[in-house]
C-alpha cells in the first residue's frame, strides 16, 4: 500500500489481559487499577496506569509518525480504516462482552455499540475527501482553499459509550492525516485498549496509541505542548477546565458536553406507536446518553393517555444485572453516577413530587436503579433544570407552542431534542425554534456517523462526525496565485 509500513499481525488476542499502546508495542506499568462490573460490583481485570513519561514518549513518537502519515493519500488511509473495520468485525462477540462487563450494558445493546463502531469505521472508509475549493479564478488571481492536517490529536473519552465515541474521534483524526493518542475513561478502559491493540498491525508505530491513566492524565494531555488538538466528551464542568488548560498552548479544542434535551409530543400522534420510542429516548442505556430525552413535554389533550401508555411500556421491561437473561435496562455504570442519580430520586421524594412510575433505588448487588417517571413536577425543580444522566425523567403538559418553546429553551444547554408529530410541517416549524445542535423528528435520539453532531450554548464547542467533523481535525489554508509575472500592489 505504497508508503505505509505496517507491523506483522499480532499474536492471538487475549481479552483478559490489557496494556497501554505506546510507540512500537504494548506496555504495562508499575501502578495498576481495575474497573468494576456495575452489575455486581465485582473487580474486573488489572489495567496499567500510564505515567507522564509514557505520555511524553507517546507524543514524541506520534509527532515523528505524523511526518510520514500526513503525506499518505486519502485513499491509502481509507484502506487502513477498512482493514480496521474488518478486524473489529472478527471480534464482535468478544468486544460486546467487554462492553457489557465494563459498562453494564445488556448484551444486545453492547453488541449494538460494537456494530455502531463498525458502522463508523465503514463511513469514514468511504467518506469523500474535502478536496480543494476554488474561491476565485480570473485573469489576474486564483484563490484556492484547501485543508491540511493539524498534527497530534488527543481524545479524552467518556464511560457511557466508550468504544463508539472513541471510534468517531479516531477515524476522523487518522483519515485526515493526523496521529492520535486516546485516553479511555478509567471506569471503562478495556474495549478501547483492546481495539487499539488489535489494529496495530495495520498502522505504522505512533499513528494510533492508547493510554489508560488516572485523574492526572487528562490535565497532562491538555497542557502538553506537543499535542495540537483535544477532543473531549464529558461533563460541562470538566469541559471548561479542558478549554482553559488548552488555551495555554492554543490547542484546537472540540467539546461535546452535557445536555438537558426536551422531547415534545404533539396531540396528533398515534400514542401506542410513539410511546415505545419515547421510552427508548428517555431510558436507553439507563438514561446514560448525552442526548437522551431528559424532559418530556406532552400536549395536555393526550397527557394522561400518554402517561399511562409510557408507564405500561417501561413496566414491561426487565431491569437488572447484565448476567440475567432478557435484560432491557442494566445498571448505572459507576458508584459516583449512582449516587448522583440517587440524589435526584431523593430530591423528588422529599419535595413530594408524584412518581407515576418507580421510586425504588438500591436493594441490588450492583448499581441497578429502577426507572422512574415524575408526573408534572414544578418547572424550577432539580429534575427539570438539571441533568440526572440516569433512569429518571420528568413529564409535563403543554398547551400552545407559544408557551412551550420558551420552556424548552429555558436551559443553559443545547445538545439535542426530539419531536413527535404527524404534521411534518408543524414538526419542522417547532424544530426550527429549538436551541440545540441536533433535533430528531419522529425518532428517538440516535446520532449517525454521517451527520455533524454539535452542541449549542454550554453543550459544547465545535462538533464531530460527518463532513464538518472531518474539517475540525484540519487547518484551512488559502493559496493566492497571482497570474502576472510580479504581483501588482
Describe this structure in words.
This protein has helices at residues 52-69, 74-90, 92-103, 107-126, 162-175, 190-198, 217-223, 236-246, 271-283, 303-315, 335-350, 382-385, 401-408, 424-431, 466-471; strands at residues 20-22, 25-27, 32-36, 43-48, 133-137, 141-149, 152-156, 179-183, 208-210, 229-233, 252-256, 262-265, 295-299, 354-357, 372-375, 392-398, 413-414, 416-420, 438-441, 453-454, 456-457, 460-461, 463-464, 474-482. It is 36% helix and 22% strand. The protein folds into 2 domains: 20-257 and 459-478, Aldehyde Dehydrogenase, Chain A, domain 1, CATH 3.40.605; 262-441, Aldehyde Dehydrogenase, Chain A, domain 2. The longest helix has 20 residues, at 107-126. Strand 7, helix 5 (162-175) and strand 8 form a beta-alpha-beta unit. The strands form 7 sheets. A 7-stranded mixed beta sheet has the order 14-15-16-13-12-18-19, sandwiched between helices. The protein contains 15 helices and 24 strands. The protein has 489 residues and is an alpha/beta fold. The protein is globular, with a radius of gyration of 24 Å. Its EC number is 1.2.1.3. Belongs to the aldehyde dehydrogenase family. The active site is at 256. It is an enzyme of class 1 (oxidoreductase). Residues 31-478 form the Aldehyde dehydrogenase domain.
